[in-house]
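Trying the structure run again after the queue cleared.
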Amino acid sequence: MSFPLPTEKQARLFWTALTGMAIAIIIALIVALVWGLGRVLHVFAPVIWPLAVAGVVACLLDPVVDFLVRKRVPRVRAILVVFTMALVIVVGLFASVLPQLVVEARDLAATSSQVATQLPARAGRLADHPPKWLPPQLVPLLRTYSENARPFVTNATSVVVIETNAPTPLLELPTSPGVSSFRPFADYATRLLPKFGQWLGQAMGFLGVMFGVIAGLALVPIYAFYFLLEKHGITKQWRDYLPVQDSKFKDELVFVINAINEYLVAFFRGQVLVAMCDGVLYTIGFVLIGLPYAMLIGVMATCLTIIPFLGAITTCISALVIALVAFGDWQHPAMVLGVFAVVQSLEGFVIQPKIMGERVGLHPVTIIVALMVGTTLLGGILGGILAIPLAAVLRVVLARYVWRKKVAT
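Done. Tokens:
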């Protein structure tokens, strides 16, 4: 029994369906690969993050080490000199900045409940008596927020007062002296042991986490030292360790890996330097306008700006909330926006072009989409940090095997 051949329209529809199915399968495989990478990173995070931090440190210090080597300083001695200089700088920064950070963090923690209580009240006053500069569309939103947040704040305050005045005991001991006098000690021990075991498990878990963090921090300089020391050997011989025979495929693989490595080094080295410059500028700007916790916000900006866009937005929102609660006027939030605009302009037109140039070569929309996908699939800050390099990797592959062929045809 023979079937008739499909018509041209049927054949076109059939191949379109197959193409769509193939594209869907490829997208599903990419999503599964990224999701699996996120799970692997979660499991092996204690092993990976010291290596990643050491790699970033080595990228930052490598130009200085190479400069000293070009001046005929032995490489080991150059690395030790650079490590000593970096240690002196870090210790000096911590000695000058850390006390102020501790004071500001303590003050912010002490006044956080007051800030949370004042925000609904201020929003309600703004909604009842809106100033001329407030857009009318925001008045209903402020009134809704004030009405919904006030009961929550009141309940939270009452709970805190109850817990402060009458703390819950570890064990509810009987109040009758006759019963408590003759109750066997084993009864109390039986009731105490589960709570003690739970507390001991939590304490041991916390100690285990702290030990892992301390051990990882101790390994970072060791890893960075050997990365810097073996740089030329790794650069010359890593190709020989690829489990692929010499062929055109191996040449292509080497080219792609080299391109990816250049993107990763350029991104991490440049983004860390950009984040440090932004943190310093934010601190100076917020100090000049008299914003409380200016140094704490600057340090937070230095850490968060490693993730493009999201770090700047988080810093701006935090500074606006603190300015609104601390001063209650529109001038200081406007000055915060002015500082934010100046820093972002300097970053976009001066700092980033000088430090990073076009080496990463990703459009801002591509960066935003990569950040959203990375934080969703990989999860958390680590996903946001890895999203940009992974997008750059995808760009290298597409530029090598897709866009180049289109241009050639």
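Confidence is low (pLDDT under 50) at residues 156-183. Worth checking whether this holds up in the mutant runs.
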